[in-house]
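In the present case, backbone shapes were mapped to integers, as reproduced here:
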Amino acid sequence: MKKTKLVCILGASLALSGCGNAYANISHGGDVVATVGDVTITDGDLYPQMKASSGAEYTLTMIRQKIYEAEIEVTDEMREQAEEEYDSVATQAESYYDMTMEEYIQRLGYADKDEYIEKVILPNIEQTELNKKYFDENNEEFLSDYQPAVARILATTDQDQASQALDALNDGKDFEAVTEEYGDTTTYDGSEQLYYTDSGLPSVVLSKLAEQSEGNTLINEVIVDSTTGTYYIAYLVSNDYETIQDQIVDALAENTSITSDTMVYYLKKYNFTVYDTDVFNTIRTSYPQYLVQRPDIAEADSES
């Protein structure tokens, strides 16, 4: 697919003053919006206020939609899902707010059901599908960053119990049964689970799982997390992406960290560039990782 430059657009017609410290202005700034007595309010009066309060959010929303249009085909299944989610929201609106869904969405500023689905529900579904696509397109970096692995974990604060558990497993005993006998935390029950960098499993254990080249393997050592004084026994089921892909999608497709990484990936793909200084500064404050035109800013945020 041919790369195109995604440029910040905050109105139907903008003029950029210069290439360095540029500021976008509307060409119809003299158009009158309202009058109060002898006071006239124009588009030019409103525009700077609106840009300051919501320019960055609106810009990113528009950019996301352009990426969805370029990368995601909206299927019948996605529209069916949107309808189901609409019905779910309608039930909540009637239950919690004692109003019809039509009343609810109009209070939110949407004209009707179709507009609410198109502007609220469907974009969330498109983002989830984009995240799934990111797993495949940026597979190597994703695996390096998140280290996903399906594993069985036993944890205990007693080193002797950990050693006895390891001996029992080497003797062929069932992992869940051994966990019930020797583990002393309800967080890890010995069942197969997907673990990754944001799942709470210590990095020292994740690293051991990532180092294994074959699945269905007991890591034949007691793994010590010195920061908490906890001892772990780990059995790797698989860290092969193709094998555990469905579990990755189920667990991470709606993950907020993944969503941020996905947007960064596609903003880079399409050479996203912000020209307006006000919008640039607002994004720098709230979403610095999205300023891919300035790696010094974006990467500094990701490292902090």
The beta strands are 14-16, 24-26, 32-36, 39-42, 149-156, 193-195, 217-218, 223-225, 230-238.
